[in-house]
Amino acid sequence: MVSITGPAGSLSVDVSGAADGEMVLFIHPANLSAASWSAVAQRIDTRWLAVDLRAHGGSARSADLGVAQWAEDCLAVLDQLHSGPVHLVGGSVGAAVAIEVAARRAEVVRSVTTVGGGFLPGTGPELLDAIATLGPFEALQQHAVGEALAPGVSAALVAQVTADLSRNDAATTAAIWQAALDTDVRPVLDAVRAPLRVVVGEHDTGIEESRIVARLTGARLVELPGVGHLPMYEAPAVLTEHIGLSISDSRGGRP
Length: 255
What we know:
The chain is α/β, with parallel strands linked by helices.
């Protein structure tokens, strides 16, 4: 991991390979961290960056949270660590962040792959209440088992997701979740010029959001059988294949 200075303080970034040529930037889900992409990153044959967004992982804590602010973090990573074309891969609210970055940097973004995208405004009082009553760690762990992961996943997989959770106090954890719930990508979709691949698990409770964005953009929609909201954990090999197809599409490798 390296540390750079972002607009809200230090940003922790995992880096693989040289800074020139094409690069993949991984953007994690809310309340997780860059480590959530480990199983995918070890399979991909393209150089990559994975950022801990502000208030996550090893990055600085900040009260200024939201898709626009997290996009600024990603732009700081690109400005300081990479010069050249970039492919964006974002999970959950990280998918909305990827859309925002692609809209702002259309000249360098070559493809966008969204994974279980959290694209539209939602409600989540149950998790907010659980954060307040159970504490952030227990609440997020229960959410992963009950809502985020597909039914019947292994205890080892649950343990891996739990290990990658960002450690924050209740107020920060709730603020991150609320920022994710307030997300709406529709105003910036028309500014995205890169080809978009929308990947979502069949058990994802937000699957309709991915279908809506695919319809609005004409994107390629991929629904993964037997998978929930976190394909980067549940089906990393299949997800890596689809990221590769996104990159290939952007090069004219597929019709």
